[in-house]
Specification:
Layout lengths: L1 H6 L4 E6 L8 H12 L4 E6 L2 E4 L3 H5 L8 E7 L3 H17 L3 H5 L10 E3 L1 E4 L2 E8 L1 E6 L6 H18 L6 H17 L3 H15 L8 H14 L2 E6 L5 E5 L4 H8 L3 E6 L7 H8 L4 E3 L10 E5 L4 E4 L3 H23 L5 E2 L5 E8 L2 H9 L5 E5 L11 H12 L4 E5 L29 H4 L1 H15 L7 E6 L5 H17 L7 E7 L8 H5 L4 E4 L1 H8 L16 H13 L4 E3 L10 H7 L3 E5 L3 H9 L2
Parallel strand pairs: 7-10, 10-11, 11-12, 16-17, 16-23, 17-18, 18-19, 19-20, 20-21, 21-22
Antiparallel strand pairs: 1-4, 2-3, 2-4, 5-14, 6-12, 7-13, 8-9, 13-14, 15-16
The chain binds phosphoenolpyruvate and magnesium ion.
The site of phosphoenolpyruvate has 10 residues, from strand 17 and helix 19.
């Protein structure tokens, strides 16, 4: 009865005026919605004739409130007055603390000479000549002839051109297509094409048309790929900045041991595995979509300011070196504090865990200050040859001895991670095919053996230590139940007690967002895989060379918020968003308490948390 009286009571309204020059952006909106939700009253925000639910982050963000805009906040029902008072106070605090967003944006450019701006993969500074991606090739079986491969490549360039519509870079693909048609008429074998392109490139070097070199290399690569060639990276003998369209994840390990100081990629996204590995290797790197860069020219790669400075002056180089030094000492300071626990200014403790892939990376994570392992990407233990039960057990034992809190993700292959001995039929859309937990149905023996190894290795662990098994790519509760049952049967068969092991899921398939209450009845924990969740929410392949998604889209935060409001189970984030300096404040505001990041990002992530 009281409810009805309150509902029909007069609404309370107040105007709120945005005074921050940053507008009412993501971080304050997240805090505002969070507070609004703690009240039972119906709360709306109205602006320019549109009225939205003030408890919903995406709705509130959709008002796009800028400095000087006045929004009408209205509350009705139970605790309406308290809600208005509390939100008014919070709003005025948020408006006063407006500088935060500036800190995390790209830094202002310091340089005199012209620069090209890009998207930051990993922040750092490199000053060196550019080195064009170069490879040697090995050929796999292919059914395509050279002529067919040529026709296929021409079609692909045409498709790329058409997909670009009237965008400024569309003509590049048109030019490449025309170039390939012309070369194809002259060259009747792949060898002839390679020789001709090598000669053309040699002649172009140092000329005003030197930027065309990358076009030639691009089209040759297209034809080679169509013919099933695999490429091996050739590395420079002196300090250099690598420029490439994209790299294979396997290339990154080679870079860390080479003279490469920085990387510029043309066609990748910040969520691709290549980008993840560049961050994990702490290589200063940028994405420049349309970089007309000339190999062997000296440039500054400043991925703090997000730019490449062409023909830098002496003064530019001095500035870059000074900035590098400052950053190095800041990094050194946060690095010194890497073993300290981490709390926000308000005293909220945040755990910073590591994403690792094998024994060596787990040991490295320990040295880098990880408080636990939030994601063991176990598929990396499974390389070209399937490891034996003994080898798997040994690896888990060594990893388990390092930390008290460990989450092992069961093998996550398929999509962009293939394994030669796991026979998955050719799929039209591998990202929508046999991936992750789906292997429990297609290849149960592999998962059972993995469970067995994990269980054997866990026997020596103290029962007070947390061991969690996490399933990837789960889309239904039934899938989880089936996988857990498989685990229980394996344990029974080998007479191993697994009562101390928790079972949970990655949240990376959008269906889970609508099933949280059902999952809550069966899982022990969750970890949000924002890399795949983003790809599936936007139907945009995470490795797609042309398409990009906004890693900081309000959609992602809204999804996270919706999970947090429905679950009562422990939850962490292990996707790349967890170490994104712009995402950390809103994630903490939404209620995330555990971030799992690549080892090299631990010290920086902890430092960022301390600044919130
Ligand atoms: C993710 O999808 O966010 C994730 C952490 O898993 P992976 O990047 O290994 O697919
Ligand atoms: Mg994933």
């Amino acid at each position: 009865m009281k409810f009805f009286i309150n509902l029909f009571s007069k609404p309370i309204e107040i105007p709120l005026t945005i005074t921050s020059s940053n507008g009412f952006h993501l971080r304050p909106v997240a805090q505002f919605c969070h507070r609004a939700k703690s009240f039972p009253a119906k709360i709306t925000a109205s602006f320019q004739g549109r009225s939205v639910d003030a408890k919903n982050i995406t709705s509130l963000l959709s008002l796009s409130l800028d400095k000087q805009d006045t929004v009408i906040l209205k509350a009705q029902g139970k605790e309406a007055q308290q809600a208005i008072d509390s939100l008014q106070e919070l709003f005025s605090n948020l408006m006063q603390k407006e500088t935060e967003i500036q800190v995390v944006q790209k830094r202002a450019s310091l340089y005199q000479r012209p620069s090209i701006e890009g998207d930051i993969i990993y922040q750092g500074i490199a000053i060196a000549p550019l080195y064009a991606f170069e490879t040697t090739h090995t050929q796999e079986e292919t059914t395509l002839s050279y002529r067919e491969a040529l026709a296929h490549s021409i079609d692909a360039l045409e498709a790329m051109y058409l997909s670009k519509n009237d965008q400024s870079d569309a003509t590049i693909y048109l030019a490449q297509k025309e170039l390939l048609i012309a070369l194809g008429e002259r060259c009747h074998t792949l060898e002839a094409l390679e020789n001709t392109i090598a000669i053309e490139c040699q002649q172009l070097k140092g000329s005003t048309l030197a930027s065309k070199i990358s076009d030639y290399q691009d089209i040759l690569h297209q034809v080679q790929s169509a013919l099933g060639y695999t490429t091996t990276l050739l590395l420079p003998q002196t300090p250099s900045i690598l420029i490439a369209d994209d790299l294979l994840p396997s290339h990154i390990a080679l870079l860390t041991k080479s003279h490469i100081q920085g990387v510029i990629l043309r066609h990748t996204s910040i969520n691709s595995h290549t980008s993840i590995l560049l961050r994990a290797s702490a290589i200063p790197s940028l994405i420049l979509d349309d970089a007309q860069l000339i190999p062997s020219e000296e440039v500054i790669l400043d991925s703090y300011t997000g730019e490449v400075i062409l023909h830098p002056s002496q003064e530019d180089k001095q500035k870059a070196k000074a900035s590098q030094k400052i950053q190095q000492s800041k990094d050194a300071l946060s690095y010194e504090k890497r073993f300290e626990s981490t709390a926000t200014k308000a005293g909220k403790t945040i755990q910073v865990f590591a994403n690792v892939s094998d024994v060596a990376s787990a040991k490295h994570a320990k040295q880098e200050g990880a408080e636990g392992i939030g994601l063991l990407r176990s598929e990396f233990l499974f390389q070209a040859i399937k490891p034996t039960l003994e080898a798997q057990t040994k690896a888990y034992q060594e990893i388990f001895a390092l930390f008290e809190d460990i989450t092992v993700r069961t093998i996550d292959v398929g999509g962009d991670k293939a394994l030669p001995y796991i026979d998955i039929p050719v799929e039209k859309n591998p990202f929508l095919g046999v991936r992750g937990i789906r292997l429990c149905t297609t290849h149960p023996e592999i998962i059972q053996e993995q469970f067995h190894a994990i269980f054997l290795a866990s026997q020596n662990r103290k029962s007070t230590h947390n061991l969690k098994i996490m399933f990837p790519m789960v889309s239904t509760v039934e899938e989880f139940n089936k996988a857990k049952t498989l685990a229980q049967h394996t344990a029974q068969k080998h007479h191993i007690d697994i009562s101390h092991i928790d079972f949970g899921i990655m949240i990376e398939v959008p269906s889970v967002l609508f099933l949280i209450r059902d999952f809550d009845k069966v899982v022990d924990f969750y970890s949000i895989g924002t890399n795949d969740l983003t790809q599936y929410l936007f139907a945009t392949e995470r490795t797609h060379p042309l398409l990009k998604t906004d890693a900081l889209s309000p959609v992602i935060f809204s999804a996270i918020q919706s999970i947090l409001t429905q679950t009562t189970k422990p939850i962490s984030i292990c996707g790349e968003l967890a170490s994104n300096p712009q995402a950390i404040p809103p994630l903490i505001t939404l209620g995330i308490k555990t971030l799992s990041v690549s080892s090299k990002m631990i010290a920086r992530t902890k430092e960022r948390v301390r600044s919130v």
